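I'm stuck. Please check this protein.
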Amino acid sequence: MTLPFRRRHHDDESAHDRARALTSIEMLEPLDASEAGWLAGHLDGCAECRRDREAFLADRELLRSLRDHTPEPPRDLWARTSAALDREARHRPARPSTSSASRRFPLAPAAGVLVLLVVIGATVAPSIIPRPLSPQNTQVAVAPTVGVQPTQFTPVAARVGWVRQTGDGSWELVITNVGAVCPVAQSGCESLGEDVHGRPVALGNSPASVSISPDEHTLVVESLGQGPAKNKILVVPVPAATPAATPEVEPTGAPASGGPETAPASPSPIPSSAIPNGVIEIASGVTVVGETAYSDNGNWLAFSARPSDGSTGPDLYLWHVGDPTAVPVTTDHQTYFSSWLGNQVLASSVIVPAAPLASGDPSTTPPDPSADAAASTTPPVEAHPSSFLLDPATLVRSDIAQPDVWLPVVDPTRRFVAFWSGTLTPTADGLDWRLGTGSLVLDGWSTGVATTPVASPDASAEPAATTAPVGPVGSPVAIVEGPAAAFTGKFDPTGTRLAIWVADDHDATVGRLYLQVLDPTTGAIDPSIAPLPGVPALRRFSIEAGRLAWVSPPGQDGQESSVQVLGWSHDNFGEVRTIPSKDLFIVR
């Protein structure tokens, strides 16, 4: 007998699975001497499996105790059953009957009885059997567990949002509060989703990336082209959280079946000549490099993009809300958007070293047959990055004086900055850059304000005020050890939590996500607190007040992806996740 247990990383997974399987079997029949001896030895050295065994035994005793009394259904049972039937009818597409037997069999009463039993079970014994839900109705929440009861707590004002694909191929946006999380060190705290209605959004073709405006009124979608159709960057309106009386859905020719709450029709891929009503195409034929992001005031959108045909590297693009298209503001094909500092753009460019001049006259010097072989063994040229601030309205540029600062991210309080301090090496195709020699560091940030005047040796002269240059103060501390080819960094609003995503390949979609806890005064990293020491995660993540959210890679633990949340209140940390689903994009 084998049971599907949760897999663990950095551990002897087969031993844990065997221990839990034997624990389940011994509740039904005696184990033979060799199995009993192995299990006893494993439990002596594994506290986690001991706790799970105690939880299994407590579950069995609790279930057996139900034999002694008949559960009393709640008074509002029928109201809740009726509501569940209504929800099921809305989400289930109508299918014509295919046989006379199916027309004669009364399916509706049977479905009603089934839903009634499910509601009774979920209502009377919610702490015994968690309710399984559809991946299309997923919300971050925590289900009660039996045996070891985790102490849950509510993060500080934590909200999270994501886009997911529904069963009919359409897309919807879900934004919800994180009601509770379970302490990371607590065993037995598994999470399930609760029923939540997402808002339909017209993303068109499969998106490569999705981000959201600060007011949550629009999504920015990188929509991949199909066939001759080009990639597009679209600004998509988000419906109000409360559905309108009549959904804005293009007629499909099929009769409506439910009135105002009828589910919207599945959108078709966006052809090159058609854009859905309300959607703005701000760029076409380009591929986003990095992320798209709105300024703090929501008036500007910034991103880097290169031609989809790979003819050049990326340039910096800006889009002002209300304008018809985004505009490239650089032409060097080596500029990368990093982040916003308030309402100013932080970006980096690459200083490409000049190619060495060939010796001799190429018209008279015969070709060297060994030149290609020598070139293949020559170490890649290292380039030096430089960074700058840019005012989107005036395009006034302020260079950061310190060299070798790549993709800096400044915390919202403007005290600290995280960046790659070092060189870059070109990728094989010559269109991108990977991290070279250096390290990911945390440093103090100078805003460039005037410092205290320094007294002049000439007593008759007025003291001259000095101004510190804008940029890192020059006291870097390494924050993530080990090799890396690409990274993304983000601070929380307080500047005391820094999330860093690191990958071993520059174009990888899966990497390792870390969370560092900073001292609010000194910026020192507290080594005693490691709430997230490098978990597998997709590239795009979100950090806000009280929580960090990311999407787990598909296939991890044998499951589809899920939205995972690390929440905190002061120095207490807890986790929660949605049930697995396909095609998830973190947006908030």
Remarks:
- Residues 338-352+381-452+465-545 form one domain.
